[in-house]
Amino acid sequence: MSHTTTTGQTPRKAALASFLGSMVEYYDFFIYGSASALVFSHVFFPDAGASTGMLAALATFAVAYIARPIGSFFLGHFGDRIGRKRVLIFTLATMGGSTFLIGCLPSYSVIGVWAPILLVLCRVAQGVSAAGEQSGASSMTLEHSPEGRRGYFTSFTLSGTQAGLVVATLAFIPVAALPTEALYSWGWRVPFWASAIVVIVAMIVRRTLEEPPAFEEMKESQEVVKFPLMVFIRHYWGSFLRIVVCHLYATISTTVTVFGLGYAVEQWNISRSSMLWTIVISNIGQVVTIPLWAKLSDKIGRRPVFAVGALGCAASVFVYFWAITTSNWSLVVLASVLLGSVCYAAPNGVWPSLYAEMFDARVRYTGLAVSTQFANVPQGFLPTIAALMIGTGAFGWVPLAILLAVLCVLAAAAAFAGRETAHVPLKQLGRTPRTTAAAPRPA
């Protein structure tokens, strides 16, 4: 049986499929966050009161973070059992379908309590889908990439994620400017419906992409294991812990985009629109710099690029919060670009290959999905912790910045805790005498 080679157009098509898939998945995921803050309290919880309705709307946003670890077990299992391509088509269809349906949901005034119930069910579907997208796209692109360029091609998964955040933010800037009646009746629905266009394009690209040669070879040699999760738990708990600590750097993102937004607006009188544009500018920069950092990691290694970026975040987070206290938007933009586009982009671009290379092909989807979804948990808590830690005055942010810096230093240290894998041949990744000798019987 002939296999697709990792030369010619295949790696580029795999990278494009990952970029488009991640962009769609995270556009859909992020527009929900904007809608929950702007309109859902009025549309789905009108009788709860302003503050209670807002809490209820934001609680539906958090539901997805509960669903994501659960989804990682199932999607990782089937990604390693039946193939990366089939599961990635499922995640794209699930995210696209649930997002479109959210835009079609009747309001509370039309169907009563069923409106928020259906909203939560759609949000759970979004969370399950997101649990398998980045890990599956990273696994598939890595296995399609030529030796010496795995980091570069795999990084387009994260470029797509940042592009999704940019498009989602831009989509809601004009929507938020609509008259109140139009916003609450039909305006908020348009960004949800619009995602269907890109879903169709991404689906066409993804369906034409073949399974990676590594997976096809496993099927031919009957190395596909029956319970990948059991192999992961038994032999890769060290990689799991390393990923969880490495991913502490990502707390920078949620703290800046969620807490930092409110901190700048409420305490330092920077307009909300200005801060939204700051997020857009920083993430556009990341779309460009992520593949550049990843390309550098193909030359000098994953660990130094990841660690330098994480340490850069530890230092520049102080600059970012200081800039906010000046109430000077130009300084905030420059500090945000330094923190996000320059420093944060380095570990963000390298982790898809760094983490994926810790596992062999038998359990790569499972290992990556489960590890990253559990590693994402601290991101959900940091905005709340930040709100509790922040003090008053020009230096009230210092304790929070110190905490974030410590987390980034730990992430940098964890990056060096394992071996360098940038130049390890694909077939040898994740393989040790212990795991090879103890491999379970194939299905």
UniProtKB/TrEMBL annotation:
It is found in: Cell membrane. Residues 14-423 form the Major facilitator superfamily (MFS) profile domain. GO terms for molecular function: transmembrane transporter activity. Keywords: Cell membrane, Membrane, Transmembrane, Transmembrane helix, Transport. Its main location: membrane. It comes from the Bacteria. It is a multi-pass membrane protein. GO terms for cellular component: plasma membrane. The chain crosses the membrane at residues 26-45, 51-75, 87-108, 114-132, 153-178, 190-209, 240-263, 275-293, 305-323, 329-347, 368-390, 396-417. PROSITE patterns: MFS (PS50850). It holds the Pfam family MFS_1. This is MFS transporter. It comes from Streptomyces violaceusniger.
